[in-house]
Design a protein that fits this description.
heterodimer; A: mainly beta; 6-stranded mixed beta sheet; B: about 120 residues; 11 strands
Chain lengths: ~110, ~120
């Protein structure tokens, strides 16, 4: 089955830019979706189809997908961005999730 | 308000069954599919399958297909997930999540708050 990999954790200084990667074999040929989950809360979709933001998601959150890596970028990181972030793709109509990355804002 | 509200935490003994509900509001229930996803402690999110609100069709992950059943009550705007023959390895947070129809192609754009299921003797 298709596997997607994420770093366990990423740290970013307040106001700086964080990049969270999602790796997979030729993942650039798939649509990647990103979710944010804060403790005790429901996951929230932050990027769909590689680079699109749902209504209400700020422009400082962006996505890119090419080759073997998809990347979620958070510019001007804020304390409120601290959360777990998950990527997801479809493979043979089965949803595959990355292991999740904990973003810490220092 | 557009939201999914799940039923409360459950504690079950091994061998029992659990049924989790996912009540929807604020959108046309029957034009979306509902997925079920779980996360066991220390594990990644695991997709369990979906039920299509348009026609009631279901697709189950091979990891669960013989133990899980998805149903829906369109009049109550509620989806259900029943998992049978529980073992301690089924201890997890269970989520429902919405996708437009046809399912299996796009993002899960709305999630429930999660239901803790603890399987312990």
């Amino acid at each position: 089955s298709y596997e997607v990999t994420q770093p366990l954790s990423v740290s970013v200084a307040l106001g700086q830019t964080a990049s969270i990667t999602c790796g997979g074999n030729n993942i650039g040929s798939k649509s990647v979706h990103w979710y944010q989950r804060k403790p005790g809360q429901a996951p929230v979709l932050v990027i769909y189809r590689d680079k699109n933001r749902p209504s209400g998601i700020p422009e400082r959150i962006s996505g890119f997908n090419s080759g073997n890596t998809a990347t979620l970028t958070i510019s001007g990181a804020q304390a409120g961005d601290e959360a777990d972030y998950f990527c997801q793709v479809w493979d043979s109509r089965t949803a595959m999730f990355g292991g999740g990355t904990k973003l810490t804002v220092l | 308000q557009v939201q999914l509200v799940q039923s409360g935490a459950e504690v079950k003994q091994p061998g029992a069954s659990v049924k989790v509900s996912c009540m929807t509001s604020g959108y046309p229930f029957t034009i979306y599919a509902m997925h079920w996803v779980r996360q066991a402690p220390g594990q990644r999110l695991e997709w369990m399958g979906w039920i299509n609100g348009v026609n009631g069709d279901t697709k189950y992950s091979q990891n669960f297909h013989d133990r899980v059943t998805f149903t829906m009550d369109t009049s109550a705007r509620t989806a259900y997930m029943e998992l049978r023959s529980l073992t301690p390895e089924d201890t997890a947070v269970y989520y429902c999540a919405r996708e437009g129809s046809p399912p299996g192609h796009d993002a899960l754009d709305l999630w429930g708050q999660g239901t803790n299921v603890n399987v312990s003797s």
